[in-house]
What we know:
By secondary structure, the protein is mainly alpha-helical. Helix content is 57%, strand content 5%.
Amino acid sequence: MKKLYYSIGEICDLLGVEQHIIRYWEKELPLLKAKKNRAGNRIYMNDDLELLTLINNLINIKGQSIKLINHNFSEFKTKANILKNKQNIENQFASVPDIPSKKKDAHINTTEISDDIKLLIQNEIEDILSVLRSS
């Protein structure tokens, strides 16, 4: 049974992420803004949960950076348009190449890494540094 709204703790339990991650996503994605109740606590509606699930999947399953997600979301203008085009968005990210895994004793020649992968790595490093600076 779906609830009318969820707390940030409930969202985190459902997605398997920490609260600071959700707050960071809210900061980086203008279309993702939680409402607040009278006590000032964040509350999320079902469409927020659906959007957060999409974001979580794009980051943790597809390996995308929050900046790339924000760039792609910006063309849809509203949360409703993003959710309506959820399948198209997931398909867009399906074509992004996987980052090669780092194996023990394996040496990767940087000239063999494509520019797309280098950009993905750079974006992830920038995201990590941003989180570390905000801590």
